[in-house]
Amino acid sequence: MANLIFDYDGTLHQSMLTYAPAFRAACKMLADKGYMAEREFTDEEISYWLGFNSTDMWNNFLPDVPADVRENARIFLGQDMGQRVENGEGALYPNAEKVLAELKSQGHTLIFLSNCRVKYMERHSRVFGLHRFFDYFYCCEEFDFIPKYQIFSLFSLQHKGEFIVIGDRFHDIETAEKNGLKSIGCGYGYGKKGELSAADIIVDDITEIPQAVKNLLL
């Protein structure tokens, strides 16, 4: 059995269902106030920012805009996404719950690790019943927004046994690489070409994760 460290957005959660409309609404708000030019963003452009913590996202997306404006945009986007999730617009990937239940029934310890904030983590856990599957929850806000690979080093001593990192972005594979862990790259998520090249196994569908875990534990 192993400790399975799951990323959330893009790995289990179809984030673009709520993130894309919220992102576009936030950009329109900023354009209306004169802080950026009004323009259309493709889904590919928007999905690039998934996986970053929200503060880093806005700092990199609009570095020349005043910090308080970026913070207000962050809050606006987060509240918009939150309301959409509460309204039932969000969704896990098809078969995500089945995969998590299967892994848990096999005796694995499931660990949630995301570059999100506590409120986001708690809302999604409530809406999607994530406590049915996960034994531990960690998010970057609890660790002052340090990188995932550093967060792992802070909580890993609390868990015995082997670890496997499962995620769709470079932050996840970096966590595995920097800590000498095995990894499963989720090619169906929001990562760009090459981000998952260092993963031990790349899966193209969420239903392939249980077999990938078995293969890594042989």
Structural commentary:
The chain has 218 residues and is an alpha/beta fold. The protein folds into two domains: 2-14 and 92-216, Rossmann fold, CATH 3.40.50; 16-86. Helix content is 44%, strand content 13%. The protein has helices at residues 16-32, 43-47, 54-61, 67-86, 96-105, 118-128, 148-155, 170-179, 209-216, and strands at residues 2-6, 109-114, 136-139, 162-167, 182-186, 201-203. Helix 1 (16-32) crosses helix 4 and helix 3 packs across helix 4. The radius of gyration is 17 Å and the shape is globular.
Which helices and strands appear, and what pairs or packs with what?
Layout (H helix, E strand, L loop, with lengths): L1 E5 L9 H17 L10 H5 L6 H8 L5 H20 L9 H10 L3 E6 L3 H11 L7 E4 L8 H8 L6 E6 L2 H10 L2 E5 L14 E3 L5 H8 L2
Parallel strand pairs: 1-2, 1-4, 2-3, 4-5, 5-6
Helix pairs in contact: 1-4, 3-4, 4-6, 7-8
Q: Number of DSSP helices?
A: 9
Poorly predicted regions: none
Helix content: 40-55%
Give the class-level CATH name of the largest domain: Alpha Beta
Radius of gyration: 17 Å
CATH superfamily of the largest domain: HAD superfamily/HAD-like
Reading the helices and strands in chain order gives EHHHHHEHEHEHEEH
Total tally of structural domains? 2
* Number of DSSP strand runs: 6
CATH topology-level name of the largest domain: Rossmann fold
What summary fits the major beta sheet? Answer: 6 strands, parallel
Structural class label: alpha/beta
Overall mean pLDDT score?
97
Using the 3D structure, state the CATH architecture of the largest domain: 3-Layer(aba) Sandwich
Distance from N terminus to C terminus (CA atoms, Å) equals 11 Å
